[in-house]
Amino acid sequence: TTPYLCTASHSRDSLNNCTGPIMSLSETLATEMKTAMLAGNKLRLDTLRSIRALVLEFEKSGAGRTMTPDDEIRMLTTAAKKRRDAIDAYTAAGRAEAADREAQELAIIKEFLPQQLSDDEVRAELQAIIAATGAASASDVGKVMGAAMKTLKGKADGSAIQRIAKELLGG
Questions:
Q1: DSSP summary character for residue 13
Q2: Model's pTM, two decimal places?
């Protein structure tokens, strides 16, 4: 079972307030899909089905193991990144309706991800990492990024981490 999922009515961020049983991502998706179906919310249902398809793809991939919370975060982060990229592409092409749909899907996917850190929180984490790694210049960004991605995996967008790291190292 995934340690940060509660019931369908709770996001992963509200686990501290959770009084119900902890559910796996698959169980949560099934419950959420049923709720979306009953409510007639087609967009939410389609988005949840796309996430469920990613879970099934992992299960059938022959990995020979059950999905871990890290696998779930990695999968959901990738899905969120695809939506962000699609939003940028649709916006650049002047397709506001399609960009809006992708933005709505992204919001649904974010419900299943841990709350993202603010730029200030990322900056504080990066300052600690920079101190720990002894990084001093822009040429050390790679060293900092390696450590930062391990520490901040799923908590912040990689491009934001890189932008702030370059800022702090004078790049």
A1: G
A2: 0.73
